[in-house]
């Protein structure tokens, strides 16, 4: 199951199908993830290897909107809550699910860091391909014709620029990233 580029910059169906596949894989390893015998670091490795790799397949080409980011975060938090289990209130002694802030203290979410690092690697790869390749034209070249009213959709290349700014390399673009092999591996 691969990803299919569309003429619209909408990946809602793609993310929905990825999350459904991730849920089916999560249910298949449910007994392992919710087991009290396995240590939490083993459960996290199962999550990273089995579940998140299915969800993130093709993620390097995604231009995520805020709604899609929210859906992916909800999925990751749901899986992490299953791994860490409920917690007991100290005062009342009642069980409750772990809050998002507590999850972030226990485990730093990896989903978006991995997507961003894959996106930067893919940007380097696409840039080195050259302008004659179709994938380069699909991901980088601006479309011709009249654009619809409203704010333009975020492009893949815009995401690369934002990712580079987040890691402190806002002065670089994808071409500089591709030419600086040592620097791109460091990022």
Number of domains: 2
Count of individual beta strands: 2
Largest sheet: 2 strands, antiparallel
SSE arrangement, N to C: HHHHEEHHHHHH
* Structural class estimated from helices and strands: mainly alpha
For the record, give the distance between the C-alpha atoms at the N and C termini, rounded to a whole number. 29 Å
Identify low-pLDDT runs: none
Q: Treating each run of at least 4 consecutive H or I residues as one helix, how many helices?
A: 10
Helix content: 55-70%
How would you classify the quaternary structure? single chain
Give the overall silhouette: elongated
Structure in words:
The chain has helices at 12-28, 30-33, 40-55, 66-84, 100-106, 111-129, 134-139, 156-166, 174-179, 181-186, and strands at 87-88, 95-96. The protein is mainly alpha-helical and 187 residues long. The chain folds into two domains: 12-109, no CATH class; 115-186, no CATH class. The protein has a two-stranded antiparallel ribbon. It is elongated and about 60 Å long.
């Amino acid at each position: 199951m691969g990803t299919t580029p569309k003429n619209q910059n909408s990946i809602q169906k793609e993310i929905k199908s990825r999350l459904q596949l991730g849920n089916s894989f999560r249910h298949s390893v449910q007994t392992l993830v919710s087991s009290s015998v396995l240590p939490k670091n083993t459960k996290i490795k199962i999550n990273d290897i089995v579940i998140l790799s299915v969800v993130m397949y093709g993620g390097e080409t995604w231009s995520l909107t805020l709604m899609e980011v929210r859906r992916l975060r909800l999925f990751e938090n749901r899986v992490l809550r299953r791994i860490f289990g409920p917690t007991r209130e100290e005062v009342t002694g009642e069980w409750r699910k772990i809050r998002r802030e507590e999850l972030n203290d226990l485990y730093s979410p990896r989903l978006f860091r991995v997507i961003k690092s894959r996106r930067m690697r893919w940007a380097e790869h696409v840039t080195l391909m050259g302008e004659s390749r179709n994938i380069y034209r699909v991901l980088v070249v601006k479309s011709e014709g009249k654009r619809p009213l409203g704010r333009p959709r975020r492009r893949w290349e815009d995401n690369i620029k934002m990712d580079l700014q987040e890691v402190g390399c806002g002065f670089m673009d994808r071409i500089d990233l591709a030419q600086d092999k040592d620097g791109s591996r460091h990022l």
